[in-house]
Every structure is written in structure tokens, then in C-alpha cells.
Amino acid sequence: MGVSIIIVVATCIVSFLAFSNQRLVSDLIFYPVAVAEQKQWYRFFSCGLIHADITHLAFNMISLYMFGPLVEGTFTEIFGDKTGLILYALLYITALLASLIPTYSQHKHDYRYRSLGASGAVSAIVFAGILLYPDFKIGLLFIPPIIPGYIFGPLYLIATVYLSKRGGDNINHSAHLWGSLYGVAYVVVTAFALTDFNPFKNFLERVFN
Questions:
Q1: Which is the most buried residue in 105, 112, 114, 117, by most CB within 10 A?
Q2: b/e map of 20-51 (b: 16 or more CB within 10 Å)?
Q3: What pLDDT was estimated at residue 168?
Q4: Is there a contact between 182 and 189 (Cβ–Cβ < 8 Å)?
Q5: What is the signed CA dihedral for 48, 54, 59, 61, rounded to 10 degrees?
């Protein structure tokens, strides 16, 4: 069983338990004030195990199921079996933190603000996949997988920035944005630091070949 599947199964189990357990939600949700005042840093990570509803959970886990094994397998090819799996797991885990740092900075004194879901980490995996396979066809909701990643990615980021500035929909678009950017940065840094693999060259070759 791969790391991606383990994450999907664990997230689904905890999320389903939390749907009927408000106490569990309160204990795990990302609450910036609790982090700032009570040093509950674990909330950066625990919030990725719970979701608002079945639709929220399904959207994230289907996206992770689509891209996770692809990225995970490519990591083992680039970095080696053991190191690749470790680096892939670290990408997901650290993306939970990285995607929420701007949210924490903005809302650490806001007693009304809370956030939950794995969207930031899932976005990191999706955009790592887009960087590695820009020609991979992607769909969204009712749109079939016909848009190549190198077109979908920029459109998604533009929409995310717009929706984040507009606000009012109770969705943490900031986590989507920063998670996406983190996923790309993570692949670039680890590839150049640990291997001879050039993600930029790979990206251009796949787009123009």
C-alpha cells in the first residue's frame, strides 16, 4: 500500500468520525488563536484530517488519489525507492504547514476564524504533478480531463487569487494558493539539491515535444 493510499484511508476514517463528533472537530481544526496563545502547533497538521462535509472530503481525496500515486511513483524514480517515499510523505506533511502560515499570520488574533481540510497539501501534490507532467490532462467538476496541466495550472492560480481577494465563501483559498506554489518549490529544491534531474528542462520538453 502506497503512501498516498494510506493518507486517503486515514483522512477518510478521521473525517467520517468527525462528521458526527463536534468535540473531535474542535480538537483538530485549525484555530490560529489556539496556536498563537496556547502553542497548539499540531493544529497545522491535524486540520488536514477533517473536512466540512462529504463533498469537501470527496473533492480532496479524489484529487489526491488521481495525482498522489503518480507523483509518489515519480519521486521513487528520481530519488530512489526509500528516499523517494520519505520525500513524498514530507511533501504532503510540510505542505499542510506551509499552506497555512499566511492564514495563521493573518488570523492569529481572530477569535472567530477556523479552517479545516487537506486542500493545501492536496494542492501541493497536484501542482507537483503538473510540474512533473505538464502534458497530463486535467478536468474540473463537470469538465472532462481535456485541459493540459500547463494550461490548467495558471488558470487555477488566477482563479484562486481572485476568489481569495473576493472572499465571502468560507473557503480558505489562501491555503490552495500557497500549497500549490509550495508543491512546485519543493520539487525544484529537492531535485536540484539531491539529484541531477532538472524539473524545468523536463517541463519544457513535455510541453513542446
A1: 117
A2: eeeebbebbbbbbbbbeeeebeebbbbbbbbb
A3: 66
A4: no
A5: 50
Q: Tell me the per-residue pLDDT of 185-196, one tens digit each, with 9 for 90 and over.
A: 999 999 999 999
For the chain, domain boundaries: 3-208
In Å, how far are 60, 73, 75, 129, 201 from 209, measured between CA atoms?
A: 31, 22, 22, 18, 12
Tell me the per-residue pLDDT of 97-120, one tens digit each, with 9 for 90 and over: 999 999 999 999 999 999 999 999
Closest CA to 6 of 133, 120, 93: 93
Q: Is the pTM above the cut of 0.85?
A: yes
Which fold would CATH assign to domain 3-208? Rhomboid-like fold (1.20.1540)
